[in-house]
TrEMBL record:
InterPro entries: NST/OST, P-loop_NTPase, Sulfotransferase_dom. It comes from the Bacteria. Keywords: Glycoprotein, Transferase. Pfam families: Sulfotransfer_1. This is Sulfotransferase domain-containing protein.
């Protein structure tokens, strides 16, 4: 096996003066949230020709950074050896109302990778993540962030003024009330699972052949097969035999299984949207 050792390689090339600083992405991983994008970004970054951004999530096209910083400033976070294929991974892009048009305007030929997770499981995973943020106090820094999305009421609705984080069903009820009132984009445990709506926004700007859709289980169960598909999609001959670290990233423990009543509710909620999605793209191993 050949070890890619990307960090060491980049330092050596930098010492030789052939380390590029500031590059346009040739592809992006745009979502979905809680669907394994952190693991995928890590796996892809181990390929000797692929160079992921640092940090992983640049969040340029879905935030105020788009208005505050130039495209050149955005590209500065993609650094690596000359001849690399550069990419970034921001799972919020798929859900963002603005990102599709902005990305297409900047990079009309960009290739996009989407990982879809079964929406009920995705929603429960997102709730568990928010619960951990609350219990660790990590939400406070995010609540003060000047780069929050417009209409982000997540902190006001679920975090501020609470002694305990609300349970999964209470979070769903908060969002259902917001949906009924046409209020805000966040919290979005439910709405982020409406994948067909989100894909349609991208297809309005970017041809479908420029998008690769993977299933979450495909990435988890057969990661090398998924990586082979990605490699060919971005113009490589395939995935090389390298010493690959396939440990999952950002895996979390759950306090309990989803309640059966909540599972039944979500099955009904997503029945029609899922059917529309499958009719458009085929079956998904999610």
């Amino acid at each position: 096996m050949i070890s890619s050792r990307p960090g060491l390689l980049h330092r050596l090339l930098g010492a030789l003066g052939i380390f590029q600083r500031g590059n346009s992405p040739q592809f992006m991983v745009i979502g979905a949230q809680k669907a394994g994008t952190s693991s995928l970004h890590s796996y892809l970054s181990q390929h000797p020709r692929l160079c992921g951004s640092s940090p992983k999530e640049l969040r340029y096209f879905n935030s105020r950074r788009f208005e505050m910083h130039s495209l050149g400033r955005y590209c500065r976070d993609m650094r690596g050896p000359a001849g690399s294929i550069f990419f970034e991974s921001t799972p919020d892009y798929l859900y963002s109302p603005q990102a599709a048009g902005r990305i297409a305007g900047a990079y009309p030929d960009i290739r996009l990778i989407v990982v879809l997770r079964e929406p009920a499981a995705r929603a429960y995973s997102a709730w568990n993540h928010l619960r951990e943020l609350f219990e660790s106090g990590g939400y406070r820094a995010r609540a003060r962030s000047r780069y929050r999305m417009p209409d982000n009421l997540l902190y006001e609705k679920l975090f501020i003024g609470r002694e305990c984080f609300p349970g999964f069903r209470e979070c769903l009820d908060v969002e259902l009330e917001m949906i009924a009132q046409g209020e805000g984009l966040e919290p979005s445990l439910l709405r982020r699972g409406l994948y067909f709506e989100q894909l349609q926004k991208y297809w309005a700007f970017i041809p479908r052949e420029q998008m690769l859709i993977l299933g979450f289980r495909e990435l988890v169960v057969q990661p090398l097969v998924a990586l082979e598909r990605v490699a060919r999609f971005v113009g490589l001959e395939g995935w090389p035999e390298i010493d690959l670290d396939l440990a999952p990233r950002n895996a979390r423990r759950y306090p309990a299984r989803m309640a059966e009543a909540d599972a039944r509710f979500l099955e009904r909620y997503y029945a029609l949207p899922n059917a529309e999605l499958v009719a458009a793209i085929g079956e998904i191993d999610w």
